Fold this sequence. Notes:
This protein is mostly helical and 216 residues long. It has one domain (11-184, 192-215). Helix content is 70%, strand content 0%. It has eight helices and no strands. It has helices at 11-29, 43-64, 68-88, 94-100, 105-126, 133-155, 158-183, 205-215. The radius of gyration is 19 Å and the shape is globular. It is found in: Membrane. GO terms for molecular function: acetate transmembrane transporter activity.
Amino acid sequence: MTQFRQFANPAPLGLSAFALTTFVLSLHNGGIGQKFGSPPNVVAGLAFFYGGLCQLLAGMWEFANNNTFGATAFSSFGGFWMSYAVIITPFFGVGDALAAAGGNVKAHAVGIFLLGWVIMTFILFLATLRSNLGLCLLFAFLDITFILLCAGDWTGKGHVTKAGGYFGLFTALIAWYIAASDLIGHHNSFFVLPNPSLAPRSINNNDLEDAKRDEL
């Protein structure tokens, strides 16, 4: 019988990378980071290496674990953070080129960029409706965050962007919670964190037979 190598769960890494990078950027979008004198482009390093590279690697390992949703989500948002880092890093000249175009070109261009992620995130949200409560809430709040940030860029209204920042902070906390619920268990702690399943309780006979075969 062919034996397959068992891989560790890459989801906590991907979720943690997403959470921390989102948390730092959202602090600035919400106007909180500036109060402490922290420059907005401090997120660039996180976007390249933690939110970007680590999430991309987590996505690749989700492919190895035969988890299509996890692979698509982590790899996509790894690419999102890397591409966002390119936009805000002066070396690549993207921000300067957009600013040189004059008017509201830069804000509108970033708004279009975010609109694409509104659509992508909504598709991923639809794929969580029968997974678990944590993932469903994560993508719901993330989509709202993108919508607000997109609207803030297009309208030029700072309070809309700030609202997006606060929703982003809550989204980051949800991602950290899910990561913690995967990491913390009876094998390494005295408690577990609940993350209720949204899957139907009843399964048909074919599903039951498939589950039994998987256990063998």
